[in-house]
Structures are given as C-alpha cells and as structure tokens.
Amino acid sequence: MKFAKKYEEYMQGDREKGLPLVGLKKLKKMLKACRREIEAHENRIQEEREIGESSDSLEIVENKCNNNCSGHCPVCDGTFFPSLLQEMLAVVGCFNERAKKLLELHLASGFKKYVLWIVNKSHRNHGSLIQEGKNLVTYAIINSVAMRKILKKYDKMHHSTQGQAFKAKAQSLHIEILQSPWLCELMAFYINLRNSKVNNKAPMELFGDCSLTLEDDKPTLSCCLFESLRVDINLTCSICLDMVFDAVSLSCGHIFCYMCCCSAASVTIVDGLKVAALKEKCPLCRRQGVYRGAVHLDELNILLRESCPDEWEKRHQVERLERMRQVKEHWQLQYRAFVGI
C-alpha cells in the first residue's frame, strides 16, 4: 500500500480527532499549482520559438522560467514552505506536550502519582499507557514521513535542493520530530514496560521491532518504524566516549552524560544547565543555545540501569565521587567569596 493511502486511512479513522497534522493533500495542491505555472512558462517559450521572436525576447522568457523554478519558486516560496513550517511547529509541539504528560504519569510516585491518575481518568492500567504511547509514536512517525515525502516531491519537481535546505532549517529550529528527545523516551518507556513483570494478558506492540543492543559495550537504541524507516540512537557519550550516564538530551537532539554536558557548557552540576550561557555550543553540531532546553531522559536512564547493571554501578561510583568533589569545591568558593578571602 502506498504511503498516501496509509496516510488517508490514518486521517479518516486511526487518529485522535483534533490533532494537528501535516496537510499532505493541501501541500500537493500547491505543488500542482506550481506545476501548472511551470507548464505555462514552457508553453510561452514554445510559442515564442514558433512565431520567431527575437533571441533577446526569448532569452528573457527563458530566464524568467529558470528563475521561477530553479532553486527558488515564487509560487511555492510564498505558500508551500510557510504552510509546511506552521504545520510542523503545531505537530511537534503537540507531540512533545502529550509525550511529556504520559511519561510524567508513568514516572510519578507517591501523592503526585495519585493526583495525576485521578486527573487523567483514561489512564487506568499499563495497557492503556502502552496504547497511548503507541498512538503518540504513530502520530509522530506518520507526520515525519509525510514531511519527508512532500519535500522529496518538491525537489524532484523543481530540480532543486530547496526541500533538503528546508529540512536542515527544521533541524536547526528543533522541529524535526524524529530528533525529539521524547521519541527516545517513548522507545525506552515501551521496553521498560515490556520487560516489567506486569501481568498484561494482551500486550500491545508499540513498534515493529524496538530493542536495546550492545556491541563492544556500546549501547544502541534501535527501532524499525513505519514505512520501513529505521531509527538508531547511539547511546555512547561523544565527550567521555562511554555509555551515557544520567543521560540528557540537548534541544538539538544530541544525547550526553549530564556531567559531561555541564563541563561542555562551563557550568557546575550545582548550578545546572539552565544557567548555561547562550553562546555555549553543542559539542557535536556546534549550535548555540541548546543547553537551557535540555531534557533529562529518565526512562532511558532506567532502561540502561536495568540492562547494564554492572556497568551502571561502576559508573555510579565514579560519578558519585566526582559529584562530591565538585559540590565541595563549589561551596568552598562560595564560602571564600562570602568571607572575602
């Protein structure tokens, strides 16, 4: 079945009503309008050739056609990209908000958990939690594939790379949904529930294939998604070159150890990443201002702790000593500044 049909089926019945979507049909209509504009220019050139107009006039018409759809297109640039950008912002915002609420509900404890379960009356058991996670991941993936398909169609029709440039812009604006830290958290959330000893008589499959693999002690979170799309998330910190410990995801989507992030952002673990300067850059993509929006990956940390207990305990002991050292140094500096030493 073609993606367009799958997407149409999803829009008609499989999705929750009222959720924002990438308007595939509307965007295709915009591209068709542009196609008609291109054909009109081509017909104009052909007519000029047939009536034998001057070469200067013909060159002007050809240049106009080339300028319209070689790299930049006035028909598409004014409607297509702004519309797609607005839809992507709505989709990513909705996905992040709902995933955050779901994971908060799962990780809550004590009185907070009781209050959340009362407020969220639809979440009564682990089966409903898994179903909600499944719906969120399907929602994220199908919109991501729709965006990828329509941008590929744009580039093919215009013989340009503007679609790829827009995708890079989306990544820089942190609205590429597959880079969302909440997608990684939902994958870990599913594996944690699957590995738990909860008596669920009818377990639901959230992904076609989702697993944590270890090759040469290098963990990778892998998932086969819709339309044969595969996502592999490397869980090796690019700073310490070890398994991520107390993992955090920066707003650009890259994952590091919390202490490594603090070191890269030139802040102490006492102050935290929220006080990082906006000029500080991600160690991998070199984007600025990515630390203040960092997300603690609690589900991923639980998964790594349960899957690699020996390595986790070893890192825990080392990190504990380092944290104590940094906290001691921090308060010594505070004391010296207070007494004026």
TrEMBL record:
RING-type domain spans which residues? 237-286
* Transmembrane intervals: none
> According to its UniProt record, which reaction does this protein catalyse?
S-ubiquitinyl-[E2 ubiquitin-conjugating enzyme]-L-cysteine + [acceptor protein]-L-lysine = [E2 ubiquitin-conjugating enzyme]-L-cysteine + N(6)-ubiquitinyl-[acceptor protein]-L-lysine
Residue ranges of the SPX domain?
1-168
Q: Pathway, per Swiss-Prot/TrEMBL?
A: Protein modification; protein ubiquitination
Q: Which residues form a coiled coil?
A: 24-51
- EC numbers for this chain: 2.3.2.27
The UniProt entry, under Gene3D superfamilies, shows:
Zinc/RING finger domain, C3HC4 (zinc finger)
Q: What is this enzyme's class at the first EC digit? A: transferase
PROSITE patterns in the record: SPX, ZF_RING_2
UniProt-listed InterPro entries? BAH1 (IPR033326), SPX_dom (IPR004331), Znf_C3HC4_RING-type (IPR018957), Znf_RING (IPR001841), Znf_RING/FYVE/PHD (IPR013083)
Name of protein? RING-type E3 ubiquitin transferase
**What is the species listed in this Swiss-Prot or TrEMBL entry?**
Rhynchospora pubera
